[in-house]
Amino acid sequence: MSKGNTFENDVLALIFNATTIANIAINATSGPLTVLYVSLHTADPGEAGTQLTNEVTYGSYARVAVNRNSGGWSVSSNSVSPVADISFPTAGSGTMTATHAAVGTTDTGNAGKILYSGTLSPNIAITTGVTPIITTATTITED
User: Rounded to two decimals, what is the model's pTM?
Assistant: First the structure.
């Protein structure tokens, strides 16, 4: 079975904007997350993975916190996009390719529950001096 289109949008708004789904779900009543953490990966972290699974390891890398509200994420038509480009720290060392990104629950160095992950297209070639960026054209879609 599939979710209805309106409910798909509701689920994204609940997760990314902390918007209650009337009569079904509310934002956490005790200590709700106020940010979500975006991570980069050198391969698919998989559905059983964490934010540490295949995470990039370049010098000065850190996950980026994005506000969990309409100032951080735009939700419409069953998809979500960042409101502003997500710029990761500039690589201080290392050479690798980020092929996937994930949105999760914890900052750098912690396992973190992955809420959504997917392929980056195009991939991001990372070398010293490169600042990896996920643009506002990046979307996560429920369907």
Answer: 0.94
Pair 99, 41: CB distance under 8 Å: yes
Instruction: Count the Cβ atoms, other than its own, within 10 Å of residue 46.
Output: 13
* Helix or strand run (H / E) with residue 15: helix 5-17
CA atoms of 87 and 110, how far apart (whole Å):
20
Question: Both tokens of residue 77?
Answer: 């038509």
Note whether 109 and 53 are within 8 A (CB): no
Q: What is the arithmetic mean of pLDDT over 100-115? A: 96
CA dihedral 114, 29, 15, 57 (to 10 degrees): -30
